[in-house]
Write a structure and sequence with these properties.
This protein is an alpha/beta fold and 348 residues long. 42% of the residues lie in helices and 15% in strands. It has 2 domains: 181 residues, Periplasmic binding protein-like II (D-Maltodextrin-Binding Protein, domain 2, 3-Layer(aba) Sandwich); 149 residues, Periplasmic binding protein-like II (D-Maltodextrin-Binding Protein, domain 2, 3-Layer(aba) Sandwich). Strands 1, 2, 3, 4, 7, 8 and 9 form a 7-stranded mixed β-sheet that branches. Strand 1, helix 2 and strand 2 form a beta-alpha-beta unit. The longest helix has 19 residues.
Length: 348
């Protein structure tokens, strides 16, 4: 696959300057480690550097919530120019005035994203991928594929599951989907969800925040099942780890990931060029096939085997549960305290 987009000239012209425009020599991009880092280096960063002559410094430090905490503590000057976060932080950062508002005048490919997905992230976020919370399990340990989130509470999985910490949005989504499956809802009536999570805490071997650490438990066989992002789950399948993943019958919640620019970033022009490059059709095809995720662009061409398990159309999204992320953000403080009190306290 040719990873270089066919319209670098158009990108620069859209930024309001001729192709000879000198962008910053260095661009600091903050995101995740593990397989994410290797794939973004190969599929996005190196092609971008080759076209624009910009050296990208990759900062693989912190989760989305930690990154936003750094942006907030520094009043929008965290030391990086582009940050990968989720739609929740994108909405909150825009509300707090700490993230740059993005527009099609400087990032033309924003206009190529599905409006329903783009709107979820608000005016400060560019949706560069879509995943969903899947139920990942060891195929060599379980006799049959689980079909329900309640499988995590089965006796055979006692001390064979692990849970994300509250700082990982997986925990929030799992609590919400358990609430829904037990007669509550996604935001206002979550008592059933917290009760279920307390049960899971007693069932688990503990809590971890990082996706890279979470996956190490299932790779070495310590854990037999856990919630995990489907893109990362597919990478484990492709590695040959004896695992598979399902979308349980109760449904699931999508993770809408965004590219954002802190309001005090030093290199905003280069940051916008990078985001536009990431949203190019060819770049999205390279990213989706490399990281095994979905895209907000409906015009990408990818193999059927990948498309079947990813979110690639509006119909796919319609089958998922999507809470009001602005309201979720407002609840996080209260829920975080309750998580420590009612869930973590139950871990053995």
């Amino acid at each position: 696959m040719n990873l270089k987009p066919c319209l670098p000239l158009c990108v620069l012209l859209a930024l309001g300057a001729a192709p000879r425009l000198a962008l910053a020599e260095t661009l600091v991009v903050n995101s995740y480690g593990g397989p994410y880092e290797a794939i973004i280096e190969e599929r996005i960063i190196k092609p971008f550097e080759a076209i624009y002559g910009v050296d990208v410094v990759y900062d693989a430090v912190g989760s989305s919530s930690q990154d936003y905490a750094k942006i907030k503590a520094s009043q929008g000057r965290p030391g990086f120019d582009v940050v990968v976060m989720t739609a929740s932080q994108s909405l909150q950062g825009c509300k707090d005035g700490l993230l740059e508002r993005l527009d099609v005048a400087s990032i033309p490919n924003l206009d190529r994203l599905a409006p329903s997905l783009a709107s979820v992230a608000g005016p400060c976020g560019a949706v560069h991928e879509v995943q969903y919370m899947s139920l990942l399990y060891r195929t060599d340990k379980l006799a049959a594929a689980p079909t329900s989130w309640s499988a995590l509470l089965e006796p055979e999985l006692r001390h064979r599951i692990i849970l994300p910490t509250f700082q990982n949005i997986l925990s929030v989504f799992l609590m919400e989907i358990m609430s829904l499956s037990r007669g509550g809802d996604l935001i206002d009536d979550v008592d059933p969800g917290f009760a279920a999570m307390a049960e899971m805490a007693r069932q688990s071997v503990g809590f971890e925040q990082s996706s890279a650490i979470l996956e190490s438990y299932i790779k070495d066989g310590t854990v037999w099942a856990m919630p995990f992002w489907n893109g990362r789950a597919q990478l484990l399948v492709d590695e040959g780890v004896p695992v598979d993943y399902v979308r349980p019958k109760e449904g699931t919640i999508p993770l809408i990931a965004t590219l954002n620019i802190p309001v005090g970033a030093d290199n905003k022009t280069a940051a916008k060029a990078f985001i536009n490059f990431f949203l190019e059709k060819s770049s999205q095809e390279a990213w989706v096939t490399g990281y095994k995720v979905g895209s907000a662009r409906g015009d990408i061409v990818i193999p059927d085997a990948i498309a079947r398990r990813q979110i690639t159309t509006q119909d796919d999204l319609a089958d998922l549960r999507l809470p009001d992320l602005t309201r979720v953000a407002e609840k996080l403080g209260e829920w975080g305290e309750r998580w420590e009190r009612d869930v973590v306290s139950q871990a053995k």
